[in-house]
Structures are given as structure tokens and as C-alpha cells.
Amino acid sequence: MNKKTIAITREEYDEIIETMKQGFSGCRPNNRIATALQIEANLGLRIGDILKLRLCDIIKDGNRYRLNITESKTKHKRYFTVLPEIYEFIKSYAEQNGIQPDERIFTMTERAVQKHLDKVCDYIGIKNVSTHSFRKFYATNIYEKNDYNIVLVKELLQHSNVAVTQRYIGIGSKLVENAIKGHLCLIA
């Protein structure tokens, strides 16, 4: 089955994460997968890069933290800022689970994450969600909260050009619809 992955809303994000943490009949709670998806939604990385992440990949740089990884898909270096709250969230998770700074934070496969996510989304009734929906959630939120700055989102996602980013977050059709609606010039 070929499905188009959507960018989830904030409400869907909250519901998915809470349901994953609490579990439901036939599905145990899974804080590990919930944590991985929360990190994806806050860093904008692909799930494959999240699953390879180590605490030592987040470097203190003066009064801030930054990511120091090479993305698996693109082979691009990623040096973006990591908010202190996100770093502390990841650090706390690692400490609670006895994970050393040079060890992978997550020891699971993309398939395992997707399988559990599918089960949760089926339970709560959200369709066309994949792990990539959390990266799209990040991109869409950055876009909307920064005056619809598509160039900023392009840089954060490390896309090759703006057109790719527009297709990625699905703004092309929204812009066309808004332009058409804004051009109504009828005289009765």
C-alpha cells in the first residue's frame, strides 16, 4: 500500500506520544519509541539519524549546544543548535536508562518504530502517519512560527532547493489556493 505521509498537527503529536507512553489494550507502553519520536519532532532529523544518535554527538559550544553529526541519507554535516531543554531531555533519558555518552541512545530499528507507530495510530484513528510525519511536523511548525520563511526551513532540513522544501511541507497548493481566493474581482 502506498500512502502519502502527512505532517501531523500539534494535537495529533500530543495524542500519539501520550498514547504511546500509556499503552492500551493489546499494546504495552513504549517510552523508548515515544522519546525517539519526540526527539525527531524537536530536532527535525530523520528517524535513521535519531536511532544512531549518541549523547556525545551533542557538543557544548560556548553557552549553547550544537549537533555534530553526518546525516545518513545526504552525507551532509549537521551543526545546528540544540536547545538546552532538548539536550537535558536527551541526557536525562540516557541517564535513566544507563546509556553512556558514547553509546547509541536507541537500540531499535526503524521498522520497529514504524510498526509500533502504526499500531498506535490505528488505535487512535489517525491515517497516513509515518516516522517521517514527525520531521514534517518540525518543518511545518518552523515555517508557520517564523513568518512563513521557506528559506529558513530549507536550511534546517538541508534540502537542495526551496522547491523541494515547498513540496515537502505541501505549501505549494496552499499558496495557489490562497492566491486564487485573494484575487476575487467580481462586480455585481
Q: What does this entry look like structurally?
A:
With about 190 residues, the protein is mainly α. The chain has one domain: Intergrase catalytic core (hpI Integrase, Chain A, Orthogonal Bundle), CATH 1.10.443. It is built from nine helices and five strands. The strands form two sheets. A three-stranded antiparallel sheet has the order 1-2-5. Strands 3-4 form a two-stranded antiparallel sheet. Helix 1 (about 10-20) packs antiparallel against helix 2 and helix 2 (about 30-45) packs parallel to helix 6 (about 130-145). The longest helix has 15 residues, at about 110-125. It is globular, with a radius of gyration of 18 Å. The mean pLDDT is about 90.
Strand order of the largest sheet: 1-2-5
Number of helices: 9
What is the name of the CATH class? Mainly Alpha
- Roughly how many Å apart are the termini? 49 Å
Q: What's the structural domain tally?
A: 1
Order of helices and strands: HHHEEEEEHHHHHH
Which tags fit this structure?
about 190 residues; mainly alpha; hpI Integrase, Chain A; 3-stranded antiparallel β-sheet
Short description:
The protein contains nine helices and five strands. It is mostly helical. The strands form two sheets. It has a three-stranded antiparallel beta sheet with strand order 1-2-5.
What is the fold's blueprint, element by element?
Blueprint: H1 10-22, H2 31-43, H3 47-52, E1 58-61, E2 64-67, E3 69-70, E4 77-78, E5 81-82, H4 84-96, H5 110-124, H6 132-145, H7 150-157, H8 162-169, H9 171-181
Helix pairs in contact: 1-2, 1-5, 2-6, 6-7, 7-8
